[in-house]
From TrEMBL:
Cofactors, names only: a divalent metal cation
Family: Belongs to the HARBI1 family.
Keywords noted in UniProt: Hydrolase, Metal-binding, Nuclease, Nucleus
UniProt name for this protein: DDE Tnp4 domain-containing protein
Length: 375
């Protein structure tokens, strides 16, 4: 099936399914399904001089690269393919993954789809009118030649920024990759297409609706951390020390919803070890690697949800292993964006205050006082 790796892959598939899954980060059935998506774009014709490398081998090579972060010289000895050829194959397959798996990462453009996401957040994470959790991370890279300090970030590394919007089921619904790590928090947010779409009202986000079991209306919002501005469309925690008990409860409830982005980053970095060290290659190549990993993450999450009987349209509770695992430790491969000192506007503060009151009355959950050490 896989040229020079044929014996190894057949042996793993027949005798060690778990080893196969760990080798390529997916089982044989999922690999064959993925191959059916990308094969038309990566299949090459044989010539009179030599046979083309099979599409399955090209895909396996790329998956192994993303799964381990091995150098192309190391992959050369595993697959017995030239280093320069490997370099081209990885870029071609990553591009094919992004082009052919686009259905697994589509930003909603109609109100009903946003409402389904909000329903998931309420049923799974007890946060109403939430249409996504947003976070940004620095992906470490080797400094490009003659780049100076352009990619140098506040942690002392060179990086590009991965900005993502995540739904309640840990799937990316929007990603922006490639901003150089030296750009400030406001610069990352200001330049991304998501902000332009929000400002231009191009996403058809539903109008404000009543909170569950309450007559108070609140807009649909994105939850985020202190690195982002407080606006009517972005909800962030109360800042500073000396917060009241009610404000601490609000911060806990918001953190409970916002952590899905941390969980998604943690799963991404655990599954694809390329993120564990500085990635070699030009910023354009790194961007393609990161995008391909994000699309594969969504593809594999969709397979997991299907196996669990959870379609995208269902709003059933899904706590799974996240409640008993600390995914944030696994997200250490990423460097968080620097926290900003945004003041927010009065309208956004009013909405936040309404939510705070709601979480301390009608929308309270039994365990929130314990989690905030309130008695």
């Amino acid at each position: 099936m896989l040229g020079c790796c044929e014996n190894l892959m057949k042996e793993l598939a027949l005798e060690d399914p778990e080893g196969y899954r760990r080798y390529l980060r997916m089982d044989t059935e999922t690999f064959e399904l993925l191959l059916s998506y990308v094969a038309p774009s990566i299949t090459k014709r044989d010539t009179n001089m030599r046979e083309a490398i099979p599409a399955a081998e090209r895909l396996a090579l790329t998956l192994r690269f993303l799964a381990t972060g091995e150098t192309q010289s190391s992959l050369h000895f595993q697959f017995r393919i030239g280093v320069s050829t490997i370099c081209g194959i990885i870029m071609q397959v990553c591009s094919a993954i992004c082009q052919n798996l686009h259905e697994f990462m589509e930003t909603p453009v109609c109100a009903e789809d946003w409402k389904l996401i909000a329903l998931d957040f309420w049923q799974m994470w007890n946060f109403p009118n939430c249409i996504g959790a947003m976070d940004g991370k620095h992906v470490k890279i080797s400094p490009p030649p003659n780049s100076g300090s352009v990619f140098y970030n506040y942690k002392g590394d060179h990086s590009v920024v991965l900005l993502a919007l995540v739904d309640a089921k840990l799937q990316f619904i929007y990603v922006d990759v490639g901003t150089n790590g030296r750009v400030s928090d406001g610069g990352v947010w200001d330049k991304c297409s998501l902000k332009r779409a929000l400002d231009g009202e191009d996403l058809n986000i539903p109008v404000a609706t009543c909170l569950p079991k309450c007559s108070v209306k609140s807009p649909y919002v994105i939850v985020a951390d202190d690195a982002f501005p407080l606006t009517p469309a972005i909800m962030k925690p109360y800042p500073g020390r000396g917060m009241s008990a009610e404000e601490r409860i609000f911060n806990y409830r918001l953190s409970r919803a916002r952590r899905v982005s941390e969980n998604a980053f943690g799963i991404l970095a655990t599954r694809f070890r390329i993120f564990r060290a500085a990635i070699n290659g030009s910023p354009a190549r790194v961007r393609m690697y990161v995008l391909a990993a994000c699309y594969l993450h969504n593809f594999l999450r969709a397979r997991t949800l299907l196996a669990q009987g959870l379609s995208r349209e269902q709003g059933e509770t899904m706590m799974e292993e996240i409640e008993s695992s600390n995914w944030q430790q696994r997200a250490a491969a990423f460097v968080p964006l620097r926290r900003g000192l945004w003041r927010g506007n009065w309208e956004a503060k009013l909405y936040r205050h309404k939510l705070m009151e709601y979480f301390n009355s009608t929308g309270a959950v039994p365990w929130q006082n314990k989690m905030c050490n309130l008695h």
